[in-house]
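Async update (no meeting this week)

Hi team, since we skipped the sync, here's where things stand on the single-chain job. The sequence we agreed to prioritize is pasted below, unchanged from the tracker. I ran it this morning and attached the output directly underneath so nobody has to dig for it. Comments welcome in thread, and please keep replies under the output.
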Amino acid sequence: MNNVLTMAVGLLTLELYLPMNDSLKGKHSIIKPVIARLRRDFNISACEAGALDEYSRAVVEVACVSQTSALAHRHLQQVAKMVETWRLDAQLIDYQIEILG
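Output:
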């Protein structure tokens, strides 16, 4: 019998607005704990990946691997919903989910 292992990789792009921030140092003090909490609470990979030189905007990329594309999509939707409620100094503007495989 041939066992086929299938996996799905999900990519979540989070666009955040940092309304009370006026420096890159301040931005990193907001984004670093967000990324650490994502990694801890959801067992995913995350990094700041866009708007690196902008004070009031951040783009965070989140990746997960799951057994099916539906599970990956659901997991990433949960991540986005939680980020939306976590902090007042990092407001979720938009998010996009892409499933690979």
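Quick observations from my side:
The beta strands are 8-17, 45-50, 57-66, 91-100.
Helices lie at 24-42, 69-86.
Reply here if anything looks off.
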